[in-house]
Structure formats: structure tokens, C-alpha cells
Design a protein that fits this description.
mainly alpha, 0% strand
Amino acid sequence: MSTYVLRARLAPMALLILPALLVIAVLSVPLDGWNSVWPVVGVAVLMLGAEVARDAGKRRQVELIRTWGGWPTTLALRYRGPTNRATVERRHAAMAAFLGPDFNLPSAEEEEGDPDSADDAYEVAVDAVRARVASSSCPRLLAENASYGFRRNAYGLRIPGMVLAATSMVAASIALSVAEEGGGQPVGRFAVPILTAGIALLFWWRIDGDWVRRAADSYVMCLFQCVETQLAKPG
């Protein structure tokens, strides 16, 4: 299983279900007869969870791109965007040198005359750059991509994450009250699931589109740095 899948897909799902798992763990009765089945069930849940997290992130990504006004990589190449003109021209020059004569990036005038076509050209060029950048010579790009994937997918799971964390906290608190009244179980065992659910609830509540955007911008900066680094290499 790739590092990207572990960080970007499985990690958000693990954060989603952890509070509920801890509550179940302190309330459940051991089922020794099922021990041989749990590994198979665990692998199936992990694989399904990875796809669920990915789909949730993809759906929210559509909204984010619309809110941002385009892909962050496209925004970084626009003359009409917030990036200063000198930086945009430097990025255009680096990409043109890296991709060769087969790719012609729009000029400022061409972009102004047909912004949609210019954006299409930027997206095609960025896809080509991604395909050509050697991950072995730019490992940080993989890390930044995984960071963005984690934040995007976590943002996609935000609502169910809040619901599950809150439900787990309530369930553990009720179980704690019952245990205190009955005196049959040590109440200290409920501290970990309650605390974990509270931290998870705070995490899910605080994440937003800006949190995802910061990771996207870091990826964009790293992508252009990788292009310039590879251009600087001899040969």
C-alpha cells in the first residue's frame, strides 16, 4: 500500500472511526471465536474506507475549486491573478523550458482575450509537468501531495466526523454515568474514549476550506521549485 494511500485516504478514515472504536472497545465483550475473522474484516474495512474517504474528498474538492476560482496551479499561472507579474513570468519561462517547444503557454494578451482557453492551456501544461517531474529527485512533492490529499479528504469527511465524534462522546458519557451508579466497572476506563472523542470533535469542527487551501498552495510552490531544480541540473 502506497504512502499516499496511507496518509491521504486511510488516515482521515482512521480519525473518523477512532472515537467509535474506543467506545466499542470499552463496552464490548471479547469474542474469542471470531479472532480468525477479524484480520479479514479489518483489511476489507480499510480498503473500503480508503475509497470512501477519496470519494468524499473529491466531492468537496469540486466546491473548493469553484470557491477558489480555479485550481491553485492554474491560479498560480494566471497573469490576471493575485500573483505579481514577475513571478508569473518566471513560472511561465520555467515551464516552457521544462516542457519544450510542444507546449506554448498563453501570453498576457492571449490570456486577456480568451481567459477560458488560457486556463485550459495551463491545466494541460501542469498535467504534463506532473507526469515529467521525477518523484525520486523531488520527494518533497510526494509529501506535499499526500498532505493536500489528507486535508481534502478530511474536509470531505468533516460532517460525518463531527456527528460520529459527538455521538461517541455522548455514548461514553452515558456509559460512564451507568458505571458510576452501578459500581460494576472501573470508571477510569471511560476517560480515554471521552477525551479522544472531544479532541476529534474539536478537530472536525475547526477544519475548513482555508486549511485545505494552505496545503494546496504549498504543493504549488513545491511543484514550481521542483521544475526549477531539475532545470538547474547539468545535462
